[in-house]
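Fill in residues.
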């Protein structure tokens, strides 16, 4: 496919799963095996939880999906685009449609909350009124409406985490990757974040949430992809989870 065609990638208009990983391995130089022969799919409109202990490979999997890292072996496809073959232009177009809330936030500390959240909307040329309204809305939902004009460097970790989530959600992207999104949050803020995720999910966003936080994992409603030492050891069907739960297993 030419770059011109890739300019028009439409993540809402394709029939294959949103994410396909086929026999993916990732080895960090020199010999750290972060993922081993992982195959999975995430369907369009699905919300899945990517679980596993510290070091299991969750962040690595998300980095492969948003093409920050390349697999050592195997195939990754996002929205029908083979990420090992995609052009730079295609990649830029695709990245604009993936919201990522990074585990380490990756916010710009000298800029304000507003400026950080506005960034993905400015990239797609949203008008100023729309941007201000969306930032206000997200800050209200996430419980930090009074922080709009504060520089990131002056916020608590929990507040920064919510700004990172707001930035990822700003464009209501077709695909949202959230890496330990509640790691620094209390119960009230956790509920606010999950409300936002459910709202996005209801509106059609595909969500992949990497987490250890048992309080947010909804085994009876959503699929669990569980990693252990880089291997996918569980790819659950929520109907089985519900049945097991009812039987007290
Ligand atoms: N850039 C890197 N260079 C070398 N090794 C890395 C790098 N990033 C991750 N690793 C290693 O790869 C393995 C998987 O790491 P990863 O960050 O994906 O785990 P994780 O499941 O996200 O863990 P956590 O729950 O602590 O965030 C770990 O052994 C980690 O030390
Ligand atoms: Mg991680």
């Amino acid at each position: 496919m030419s770059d011109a065609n890739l300019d028009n990638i439409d993540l809402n208009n394709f029939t294959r799963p949103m994410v396909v990983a086929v026999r993916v391995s990732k080895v960090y130089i020199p010999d750290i095996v972060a993922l081993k022969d992982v195959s999975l799919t995430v369907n369009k409109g699905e919300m899945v939880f990517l679980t596993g202990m510290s070091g299991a490979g969750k962040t690595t999997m998300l980095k492969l999906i948003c093409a920050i890292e390349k697999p050592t072996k195997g195939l990754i496809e996002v929205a029908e685009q083979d990420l090992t073959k995609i052009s730079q232009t295609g990649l830029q177009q695709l990245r604009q449609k993936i919201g990522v809330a990074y585990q380490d936030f990756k916010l710009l500390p000298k800029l304000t909350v507003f400026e950080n959240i506005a960034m993905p909307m400015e990239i797609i040329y949203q008008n100023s009124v729309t941007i201000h309204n969306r930032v206000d809305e997200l800050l209200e939902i996430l419980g930090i409406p009074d922080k709009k004009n504060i520089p990131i460097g002056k916020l608590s970790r929990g507040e920064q985490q919510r700004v990172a989530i707001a930035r990822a959600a700003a464009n209501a992207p077709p695909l949202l990757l959230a890496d330990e999104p509640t790691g620094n949050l209390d119960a009230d803020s956790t509920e606010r974040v999950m409300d936002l995720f459910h709202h996005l999910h209801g509106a059609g966003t595909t969500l992949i949430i990497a987490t250890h936080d048992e309080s947010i994992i909804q085994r009876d409603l959503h699929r669990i992809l569980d990693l252990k030492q880089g291997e996918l050891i569980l790819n659950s069907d929520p109907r089985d989870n519900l049945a097991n739960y009812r039987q007290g297993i």
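The beta strands are 19-28, 32-42, 47-51, 73-78, 81-82, 98-101, 175-179, 206-210, 223-228, 231-235.
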